[in-house]
Amino acid sequence: xxxxxxxxxxxxxxxxxxxxxPHCRNAMSLTMVEELAQIFHELEHNQNIRALxxxxxxxxxxxxxxxxxxxxxxxxxxxxxxxxxQEENTNPFFELxxxxxxxxxxxxxxxxxxxxVLEGAVLGGGFGLACVSDVAIACASAQFGLxxxxxxxxxxxxxxxxxxxxxLTQARRIALLGERFDGTEAVKLGIAHxxxxxxxxxxxxxxxxxxxxxxCAPGANRVTxxxxxxVGSAEMEALLDQAAQQFAEAxxxxxxxxxxxxxxxxxVPEWAQ
Length: 273
Description:
Blueprint: E1 6-11, E2 14-19, H1 30-43, E3 51-56, H2 67-81, H3 92-109, E4 113-118, E5 121-123, H4 125-131, E6 135-139, E7 143-145, H5 159-166, H6 168-177, E8 180-182, H7 183-189, E9 194-196, H8 199-215, H9 218-230, H10 236-251, H11 254-264
Parallel strand pairs: 2-3, 3-4, 4-6, 5-7, 6-9
Antiparallel strand pairs: 1-2, 7-8
Helix pairs in contact: 1-3, 5-6, 9-10
């Protein structure tokens, strides 16, 4: 398909999705949110794609929400207020913000390994996407932050995911002070996992990460990711019972058999070839 705000390509086991609005540092418009949500919906049951790589075009990941979309929403809100027949739950600001929340939740729960490549601006919504990735690769010069409170608004859909990523104490500091920091600090905080100094190193680290993903059995990765998501929300004994059942199924599956045989025969398993 052709997208207005994205570049989409598949290479081997990975789908590369590039945020492509370079004139505004890839700020996230409602159209971009809707296009990402469409792609993620299609990925939910795609067994052939094992990794999703999220990048930004021309040196920036994402500078947050699109101010023009907010202005358009303000105009629609004024129209709604002047039309008594409009339902209260059609507030355009609510719909704009909640659409992003649904999309970032989709990203968080994708069965694929989600890898973000973070350079330039990683602000607001871009910061949120970084916080729901399974693996984040950051450039040392990247600029991270939650600028919302400085604009008189709040990081409404992003904040819960930031807390889950780095903990309440650091999330308070970053959100309530509007802190800006670089890739080195992002790695220290646990937002990103790998630190690179330039574009070449970013590409090389991405290649290494994807090779490791390819070495892992796709079915086992999907079940493991789902299991990890339940920690802290499911009752522990019930979760361990579920995990034991999934382990038994994995051992007896075709992947389990192939993985065992490959280990004994000292060869690469079929899924890694």
